[in-house]
Request: fold
Amino acid sequence: MTPAQIPVQTLVPQGEHPPAWKWYDYFTFNIDHKVIGIQYLVLAFLSYLVGGVMALGMRAELYTPDSDFLAPAVYNALLTNHGTIMIFFWVVPAAIGGFGNFLIPLMIGARDMAFPKLNAIAFWLNPPAAILLMTSLFFGGSQSGWTAYPPLSLITASHAQSLWILSIILVGTSSILGSLNFVITIWKMRVPSMKLDEVPLFCWAMLATSILALFSTPVLAIGLTLLFFDINFGTSFFRPEAGGDVVMYQHLFWFYSHPAVYLMILPIFGIMSEVIPVHARRPIFGYKAIAYSSLAICVVGLFVWVHHMFSSGTPPWMRLFFTVSTLLVAVPTGVKIFGWVATLWGGKIRFTTAMLFAIGMLSMFVVGGLSGVTLGAPAFDLHVHDTYYIVGHFHYVLFGGSVFGLYAGIYHWFPKITGRMLNEPLGRLHFAMTFVGTHLTFLPMHELGMKGMPRRVAMYDPQFEFLNHLCTFGAILLGLSVLPLLINAIWSWSRGPKAGDNPWRALSLEWTTSSPPLVENWPVLPVVTVGPYDYGTKESS
Amino acid sequence: MQEIPASFWTLLAGIVVTAISFWVGQNHGLFPEQASNQAPLVDGFFNFMFTIAVAFFLVVQGAIVVFIIRYRRRPGDDADGSSVRENLPLEILWTAIPAIIVIGLGVYSVDVYRDMGGLPSSGMMMAHHHSRGSALAAPLEVQTSPALTATTYGLGGAPMAEENHTPDLTVNVTGLQFAWIFNYANQQVTAGELHVPRGQDVLLKMTANDVIHSFWVPQFRIKQDVFPGQFTELRFIATKTGEFPVVCAELCGSYHGGMRTRVIVQEPADFERWLTESQVAQASGQTVAQATPSTLLTSYAQDLGITQETLAQLPH
Reply:
């Protein structure tokens, strides 16, 4: 028998686990993509806890209308760093760096990424960035929001703002290096037997994500570098009193930061397309439509940034052009949602925790997506721009969408990453608390915004007190909801039941190797004999 | 017993979804009261979008709930589900319907936006630009030169669709950390609260002293950022007397949340009386006409929650 004919399933017999990395290897400049993936995931999760504590601090302040729990400057530092951490240190590195690195080579049958050392460099830019950001808190913390609009960012807490800029430029550089690696790996390193329409949808999503990051991230780096020069070296790119243009900064910022929304949701779309078919025992509905809609979102997503600036210094033609492009993004996004719902049709759905979070994400993301469409036109956006309606909307997308998707991914791939199963009852408790907490925290925010409460305030009109109480109770529930996950993950990592190679009976290639996968993934590279979504067909049984 | 055909249930579900969507779209009660000519336009537009959104929400969530109940795995069943992978007509349908809806929404939104006064200098209105420009350059507008009006952004169009109409009242607005100053240049009056007459066409010419602020009156449904070194404008007709909050909606520093004042909509006669009284008072040097920001704010310092040291740092 030649290697090409060896059935995939028998390459690594059950129970025969090859030597793995030692614990201290995870603290070194290791070039194994799986080690790097775990490094990203763990660092990101720790950052998530820090960012979550900051959110609880803000919700505590907002329990009462007056500014009575935190000093106003501290509140502004919390809101800035909460946003910064959740975006740049949690969702982006967990989804792209964490799952992307761990899964892509395993899914396409490669032994590692195209440039393993570059990959390690990309990760190791993150810890110093995190240290810079934490250091900035000792200088009062950057207080101008994660948007850092000048002139406020030029005249407030300059040292902290400078450290913040350096930190973001480091993670941005990391993102560029990582994206380059993903594009080349996905394009060039597929196992020869894998046809283009057998590439798992997570990889398509990561391809779109990486292209988007490559186009947009350098622009943010430019904007922030100019801002850094204005603060420290006396230039006046954005100083209005010296002829600078503050609106230009907003364009540079949002040219990256709107695509950043897609950087945080496209990989999650990929996770959804992997998790749902496995647990519904169904082929994904509309493979091509879902793959191409990722690319469509990537292209259209580059031309919608001005919808963040409808109330800024923008002329009418610009407001209207970006209305149309913004509304158009709803179409490819809808295609995906309908595809996932149709995948549930006719399935034999197993309500594992991973599936609960995936269905929860689907349900939540519909709310965030629909409220997003209402914001696409200035006729309504001018009323609710910079209010709690926006805060409610983007938390449905980024918490109900991205974080639920990350949770689904964690429950789905934890057995592959660690070799052990997570506890299901604890997982269901985690899901129930998160689901209720999310609605309780973020649903009332829509009404708050429409009724007149602006965002980023530490004090508000007393008429909004009741709804703010609901939000704070929900936030406490969300804070507590992390405990079952933490306990579950720590306990199961060492004592959970052994997972075996393929506990979910999934068909994509990462499940053909051992759990955790051996150092170079397979003794002999696998051969694709069955597509990743061929459930219910003769080939898969 | 015969079964009720599935098409009947589909029809019934469609009727129920439509009825609920229309009812919710009209009765959600999420807006504060309407007090400007733009408010009914914005609310009508939102209600239209909200009706469609509720219908989509019900259909998608309904499908999710029905499918997860109907297609749940039964105990002991380890087989796979249906192997259907695609259905081209269905996929075309669910691409086309949202596409048509969002294009329709886009067209409708342009219409609403124009009625709100959002297209003051485009298309047909170019012809009026000159006359409007010269009106703005009249001596009443002390701070505004024609060169600056060319780059003024905001909702500056006449709100009554009379494109040639010049505003009945122009107020210069200055935002600063953390207060608003309203200057009635023509009448030599400066105030910390905005007084406007009901039913008249009011133009706000706005700028900032320090950082970006944003002028928002929730009951008017309009908002415009305010920049240092640049003018932006808002134009509206207040339709209801009363006091409404003026809120800063752009993060502007520590006391951003405290940067609130009021707009007081009065009957034209009451407004004229207030204007005359303020003119007399300010001419005799009693109040704020010649005040610098810091002296003006001294009496408000307690309410704003800021100290005299903060005030002393304000630009003079």
Remarks:
- Chain B touches chain A through 86 residues (CB under 8 Å).
- The longest strand of chain B covers residues 169-176.
